[in-house]
């Protein structure tokens, strides 16, 4: 017996798994990493006036050292070292 008109489509038992894996792959491709920086973090990354002043002072000292005009006050240095290692109580 030969049946020419078959209304039932062929069944692929693995098709459901293929569809699920394709959807999972698509969802993974759509997702991406995202980074948000708060206003507080942005304000911390900006240069503060104190940092700018310190940089100016350091650059001035570097220029004096390069020019050979920087002089160390030995008495002030010794006083500061003693005060650091033997703080007043």
Q: Can you put this structure into words, describing what you see?
A:
There is one protein chain. With 89 residues, the chain is mainly alpha-helical. The mean pLDDT is 82. It has four helices and no strands. 61% of the residues lie in helices and 0% in strands.
Note the main attributes of this structure.
single chain; 89 residues; mainly alpha; 4 helices; 61% helix
Total strands: 0
Q: Unreliable runs, pLDDT <50, ≥5 residues?
A: none
Distance between the termini: 112 Å
The share of residues in helices is 55-70%
Overall 3D shape: rod-shaped
Please indicate the percent range of residues in DSSP E strands (runs of 2 or more). Answer: under 5%
* Radius of gyration from CA coordinates: 38 Å
**Average pLDDT, all residues:** 82
Class by SSE composition: mainly alpha
- Biggest beta sheet attributes: none
Q: Spell out the helices and strands N to C.
A: HHHH
Provide a count of the helices. 4
Task: Please sum up the structure shown.
With 89 residues, the protein is mainly alpha-helical.
Task: Give the arrangement of secondary structure elements.
Blueprint lengths: L14 H16 L8 H7 L3 H19 L6 H12 L4
């Amino acid at each position: 017996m030969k049946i020419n008109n078959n209304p039932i489509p062929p069944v692929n038992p693995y098709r459901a798994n293929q569809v699920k894996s394709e959807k999972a792959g698509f969802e993974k491709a759509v997702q991406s990493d995202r980074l948000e920086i708060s206003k507080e973090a942005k304000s911390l990354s900006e240069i503060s006036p104190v940092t700018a002043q310190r940089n100016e002072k350091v650059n001035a000292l570097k220029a004096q050292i390069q020019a050979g005009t920087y002089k160390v006050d030995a008495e002030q240095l010794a006083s500061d070292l003693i005060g650091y290692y033997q703080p007043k109580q």
